[in-house]
Write a structure and sequence with these properties.
The complex is a heterodimer of chains A (114) and B (115). With 114 residues, chain A is mainly beta. Chain A has no helices and eleven strands. Helices cover 0% and strands 50% of the residues of chain A. In chain B, the strands form three sheets. In chain B, strands 2, 5, 6, 10, 11 and 12 form a six-stranded mixed sheet that branches. At the A-B interface, strand 4 and strand 5 of A face strand 5, strand 6, strand 10 and strand 11 of B.
Chain lengths: 114, 115
């Protein structure tokens, strides 16, 4: 089954404790992206990757890191989480070709930082 | 830079009534346009998309949307709403620049369906 998986689905942590949210897709997609969803703000892009070893900042990259060492994986790293990073996080992937194609979303990771 | 506006934060309709969700975009060229739906506790699922061609596009679950360049709009419609359509709906605009693509989402419209 074609899918994007994220782990963990739920995470409660404390300020400053490094964490990683994993994202993996099995569709051989070149493009992957991380979003955060906050009430009233919709989805805002954190980082994206057009292919292996190619990443770039989205609209709200501060406090986050990513890496793309393999095509299927795109982990999101919070090196020193703060309460303002409490949010619902989504990973997505697509195969845009020469244009912009639909994105396939993971189920989301709800992060609480206390 | 592209942007998307969904002016209605929350809409309530009766089951069986028609629905129209508004979306306005800002982009200099012909955009790639999408509508996604998010059911409670779920990720986003694509309803429909527009790249070019016929400006009235059909999607899944009986939804359709019409691209109107003159109004910079891409409104989502459904003739008869079902209780299972209660969800949050996001309009998105995509653009390609060289080797990079950028997709911007609106803030969403939450749909409530009453019996």
């Amino acid at each position: 089954e074609a899918q994007v998986t994220q782990n963990p689905r739920y995470l409660i942590t404390v300020t400053g404790k490094k964490l990683t949210v994993t994202c993996s897709q099995n569709m051989n997609h070149e493009y992957m992206s991380w979003y955060r969803q906050d009430p009233g703000l919709g989805l805002r892009q954190i980082y994206y990757s057009m292919n292996v070893e190619v990443t770039d900042k989205g609209d709200v990259p501060e406090g986050y890191k990513v890496s793309r060492k393999e095509k299927r994986n795109f982990p999101l790293i919070l090196e020193s989480p703060s309460p303002n990073q409490t949010s619902l996080y989504f990973c997505a992937s697509s195969s845009p070709g020469q244009g912009v194609d639909e994105q396939y979303f993971g189920p989301g990771t709800r992060l609480t930082v206390t | 830079a592209q942007s998307v506006t969904q002016p209605d934060i929350h809409i309530t309709v009766s089951e069986g009534a028609s629905l129209e969700l508004r979306c306005n975009y800002s982009y200099g060229a012909t955009p790639y346009l999408f509508w996604y739906v998010q059911s409670p506790g779920q990720g986003l699922q694509l309803l429909l998309k527009y790249f070019s061609g016929d400006t009235l596009v059909q999607g899944i679950k009986g939804f359709e949307a019409e691209f109107k360049r003159s109004q910079s709009s891409f409104n989502l419609r459904k003739p008869s709403v079902h209780w299972s359509d209660a969800a949050e709906y996001f309009c998105a605009v995509g653009a390609r620049s060289g080797g990079y693509q950028k997709v911007t989402f609106g803030t969403g419209t939450k749909l409530q369906v009453i019996p």
